[in-house]
Amino acid sequence: MLKGYGAVILDGAWLTLQLALSSMALAIVLGLIGVALRLSPVRWLAWLGDMYATVIRGIPDLVLILLIFYGGQDIINRVAPLFGYEDYIDLNPLAAGIGTLGFIFGAYLSETFRGAFLGIPKGQAEAGVAYGMSNLQVFFRIQVPQMIRLAIPGFTNNWLVLTKATALISVVGLQDMMFKAKQAADATREPFTFFLAVAAMYLVLTSVSLLALKYLEKRYSVGVKVVEL
């Protein structure tokens, strides 16, 4: 059915999965940093966090991918000679893809985490302090578990969008399953066959992700009663 290109596309699918997981890990870190800045009582830090979230969310992903990949490569090659390195440096497409998607979706996750933190009643933190907990204990034992529960729906949406956005990284030469499908389509002149196969793989990946994240949401909702109005 896939004219002998099935194994090649599966190799690309594995690379796509690595890209998605690594990018999301970086996005979580940047999202937590971003929300820490945005909720900071220090005005200029809050402004910096808001600027990060606003600017990145306002620019199309493809434009940012091209800007960061080509612009970053240009900056690196301008700076490298200052440190005595004269050879031309080519950015690794996988590393560039992880950095770019992580940076983009870190901004989205900062908004998701911000909403989750603001959804926790302030009285709970005050009760923790009154009980004798330190600020760190209140943060990790009271606020973070509840933040995770409240953030899972938004996190799920961001994960699905990021997973689909990995297809855009093929434009900078990453040989993911989209790149491999394009090569196979050009060689066989049967684009519908290969792009349909890639669409099915993305659908399988997102469907499995939804099941896993729904289980996680249920796990973190144990003991929580939903009040129906």
From TrEMBL:
<comment type="similarity">
    <text>Belongs to the binding-protein-dependent transport system permease family. HisMQ subfamily.</text>
</comment>
<keyword id="KW-1133">Transmembrane helix</keyword>
<keyword id="KW-0812">Transmembrane</keyword>
<keyword id="KW-0029">Amino-acid transport</keyword>
<dbReference type="InterPro" id="IPR010065">
    <property type="entry name" value="AA_ABC_transptr_permease_3TM"/>
</dbReference>
<feature type="domain" description="ABC transmembrane type-1">
    <location>
        <begin position="13"/>
        <end position="213"/>
    </location>
</feature>
<keyword id="KW-0997">Cell inner membrane</keyword>
<keyword id="KW-1003">Cell membrane</keyword>
<protein>
    <submittedName>
        <fullName>ABC transporter permease</fullName>
    </submittedName>
</protein>
<dbReference type="InterPro" id="IPR000515">
    <property type="entry name" value="MetI-like"/>
</dbReference>
<dbReference type="InterPro" id="IPR051613">
    <property type="entry name" value="ABC_transp_permease_HisMQ"/>
</dbReference>
<dbReference type="Pfam" id="PF00528">
    <property type="entry name" value="BPD_transp_1"/>
</dbReference>
<feature type="transmembrane region" description="Helical">
    <location>
        <begin position="192"/>
        <end position="213"/>
    </location>
</feature>
<dbReference type="InterPro" id="IPR035906">
    <property type="entry name" value="MetI-like_sf"/>
</dbReference>
<feature type="transmembrane region" description="Helical">
    <location>
        <begin position="12"/>
        <end position="39"/>
    </location>
</feature>
<keyword id="KW-0813">Transport</keyword>
<keyword id="KW-0472">Membrane</keyword>
<feature type="transmembrane region" description="Helical">
    <location>
        <begin position="91"/>
        <end position="109"/>
    </location>
</feature>
<feature type="transmembrane region" description="Helical">
    <location>
        <begin position="51"/>
        <end position="71"/>
    </location>
</feature>
<feature type="transmembrane region" description="Helical">
    <location>
        <begin position="150"/>
        <end position="172"/>
    </location>
</feature>
